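Hey, I was hoping to borrow your eyes for a little while. I've been staring at a protein lately and its backbone has me curious. You're getting the sequence in one-letter code plus the fold written as tokens. Would you mind checking whether the tokens look sensible for this chain? Here's the protein in full, and shout if anything looks odd to you:
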Amino acid sequence: MRLEILSQKSLEPTDKPAIVFVHGAWHGAWCWAETLMPYFAQNGYDTFAISLRGHGKSQLKGSLKFIRIKHYVDDVMGFVAQINRPLVLVGHSMGGFVVQHCMTKQNPNIIKGILIAPVPPMGTPKKSRDIGIPKPSLGDMLKMIFTLQTFPLIGTIDKARAYFFTKDFPEDKMEEIFEQLQDESFLAVLDISGRDLPDVSKVKVPVMVLGGTEDAFFSPSDLQATAKAYQTDLQIFEGMPHNLFIEEGWEKVAASMKNWLEK
């Protein structure tokens, strides 16, 4: 099964670890290509972004509806084995949950992990945030249940903006991103709600956790719980949404990650 791998490499020979980016639900490798990948390549890192099976241009055997988190973990670990060099895993949202599972494998080439607005290791919060984000309608919920499709949750530009970005995110960029959003596995969404949790005690590498105060999915207290689970500090960015690595001002997020990697 062929998986889409994007790469942007350092212009100079480098002894720095590679960085492998893992996207979140409804996204693909494309989401890293205009911000963090060029930023870190320009700072001497070889960067790679994987589209998990059934996402972006990656192939899929069977139906996306029935893919589990363990299958996404297999995708990432297969690529880790393929490049066979010291690397840092960076995961966003559901991708952060996948990265947490990958770190439990204790592969010696995985030397650090960065979790951006991650699903907590204890699973998605039982209550949604009350920060003015429209709750899913009954119709959307029924559609998701009976079709096993999760796209209705974020299936309009207005919904996608509310969940992923600030209200001031440029309209032209929002339209471009919305065209690339897609359905997500129904069973994977169930897995992150508590059916397949990572064993935090098996994670032996340094972990960075960061997020924004205006994240529609995970509150600062959710992010703090994740940081506490990995005995690390939380980097919180005021006014930043769930997709803080794409939002206007993403450069300060990138700089914080770079500082942590190189300290």
User: Anything to note?
Assistant: Residues 5-262 form a domain with the Rossmann fold fold (CATH 3.40.50.1820). The beta strands are 5-8, 18-22, 47-50, 87-92, 110-116, 207-212, 234-237. The chain has a mean pLDDT of 94.
